[in-house]
Structure formats: C-alpha cells, structure tokens
Amino acid sequence: MSEPHDAPAPVDPDAPCPHGGPSSFERASGPLARALTSIHPLVLMAIVVALVLAGSFLPPPGWLLIVPVIVVLAWVLALGWSRRSPSERLMQVSVIFLLVAICAVRAVPR
After folding, report:
1. Handedness of CA 6, 10, 11, 16 (dihedral sign)
2. 106 neighbors 70 (Cβ within 8 angstroms)
3. Cβ neighbours of residue 50 under 8 Å, at least 6 residues apart?
4. Tens of pLDDT along 35-44?
5. Minimal CB count within 10 Å: which of 19, 75, 92, 103?
C-alpha cells in the first residue's frame, strides 16, 4: 500500500511573508489587481483577444490597441516574478515579445 500524502498546510494570511512582506510596488498595485481579479476570467480573455485582433488587423494606428495588453502583461509578470517558475517566466516573456513584434511590424509597414 502507498503511504498517505500529507496535505499542504493552510496558508495563514496574517503570517509574515518569507521575503519580508509586500514591496511598495505590490502594495501600490493591490487595488488594480483586486479590480482585475473581480472580473470573470472569460471576460478578460475576450477583451485581450479583441484588442490583439483589432490591433493586428486595423489600419496603422490600430497597433496602439495592443500596447495596453503589453503593459498589463508586463505588470502582471513583474508582480508575480518571484512566485513563478523559470518556465512560466519564459512563457510569459515570450508572449510579451510576440506582442511587441506584432506592434513593431504593424507600426512600421514597408
């Protein structure tokens, strides 16, 4: 028979963080982060997809619609950098670079 697995200990919200507590960047981002988490994930995904598609297919100033998506993704990456594994970081950075490349191609047509 296999040995029973220990369940993870519950997280105490009042316990101090191992890295010394939230930084000023994390504290300042708190209200906006809470507002974004209150929105249904499918709605957020639909907004992101709509902005990226519109920015990709609209005439030249349309690429500006992708810029807020890049900024928000970079902000989320910065907020969770210490809690992400290296592969998660690499995936998110690659998505940001892909969106920057789309913006560059759309902003500087031949």
Report:
1. negative
2. no
3. none
4. 888 889 999 9
5. 19
